[in-house]
Design a protein that fits this description.
Blueprint: H1 2-54, E1 65-68, E2 73-77, E3 82-90, H2 92-98, E4 132-135, H3 146-152, E5 158-161, H4 163-167, H5 169-184, E6 187-194, E7 201-202, E8 208-209, E9 213-220, E10 225-232, E11 244-245, H6 247-254, H7 264-271
Antiparallel strand pairs: 1-2, 2-3, 3-6, 4-5, 6-9, 7-8, 9-10, 10-11
Helix pairs in contact: 2-5
Length: 280
């Protein structure tokens, strides 16, 4: 009888240990999920105040479909089958997660077509094209949640980009801007292709336009300052500062209108100034 009681107590103890372990695991998972959900909530709250600053008026020269995702707004060109512009908010809170141990791992995500957007290509249409699938909103800025990472790997966020540029000076620019959010706090970023009349196309039907170059514009709304960057679609070398320009310069080249929600006087002042050194 004592042996049976002892065995029964051992079984009960084992069940308690397993249940306790499962509770701890679930608690850790819930904490991780809540961390992402809370962060997304903060982003949404930030975006409610900043959303108008991420809105871009796309040039009437280009067809455009606007799609809002959880962490970025895509203005997609269904005729060229690439985005006209992708804009998003990047905060120091997001960067803290992306640079920390809880960041989403890029290797866990794959490129996918967004079937809800007309003209969005399949991921395989870039294969053997000679061009990278270049993120406009970079994955490194989106590692703060599963949803933001999934969204940034949709082909609506992708342009044909020279491989050496993508892994070279363009990557340096992305890392520099990432560090600005870490240092200065909330910034607004808009990125996209420059169409210069190039007739080069890729894709299954040869209808995905290869951009002649790329732009980025960055706004620091707390300090009323902005800056732009222009790159050709090949590795031109040189530092980030070499490619700096005013937002007005980018607007003249693209025909788009950025940060129009700013008061007119502030918009004119920030978009006509380029002071790279003040950002570092």
């Amino acid at each position: 009888m004592n042996n049976k009681l002892t065995k029964l107590l051992c079984v009960i103890a084992a069940i308690v240990v397993v249940a306790s372990s499962a509770t701890c695991i679930n608690a850790r998972r819930k904490k991780h999920d809540n961390r992402s959900e809370n962060l997304v909530g903060r982003v949404d709250n930030t975006s409610s105040g900043m959303r108008s600053l991420t809105d871009v008026r796309i040039s009437s020269k280009y067809r455009n479909t606007t799609k809002r995702y959880s962490a970025m707004t895509v203005n997609f060109n269904p005729a060229y089958r690439v985005p006209n512009c992708v804009s998003y908010v990047l905060t120091s809170s997001m960067v803290k997660v992306t640079d920390g141990p809880d960041a989403e791992m890029r290797r866990n995500y794959k490129f996918n077509r967004d079937p809800s957007v007309a003209g969005c290509p399949e991921w395989w249409e870039y294969k053997k094209s000679g061009y990278d699938r270049g993120h406009m909103a970079p994955a490194n800025d989106m590692r703060w949640s599963r949803q933001s990472m999934s969204d940034c790997f949709l082909m609506t966020n992708i342009c044909p980009q020279d491989h050496d540029l993508n892994g070279g000076s363009w990557n340096k620019l992305e890392l520099k801007i990432h560090s600005w959010a870490k240092t200065h706090g909330t910034i607004i970023i808009a990125t996209g292709p420059i169409f210069n009349g190039s007739s080069q196309r890729i894709g299954q039907n040869g209808d995905i336009v290869v951009p002649g170059g790329f732009f980025k514009v960055v706004l620091d709304p707390a300090r009323n300052r902005a800056i732009g960057f222009i790159y050709d679609n090949h590795e031109g070398g040189g530092g980030v500062k070499r490619h700096a320009c005013t937002v007005d310069d980018v607007e003249r080249i693209t025909g788009h209108d950025f940060f129009s929600a700013l008061p007119d006087g502030v918009e004119r002042a920030v978009e006509s100034t380029c002071n790279f050194d003040q950002w570092n």
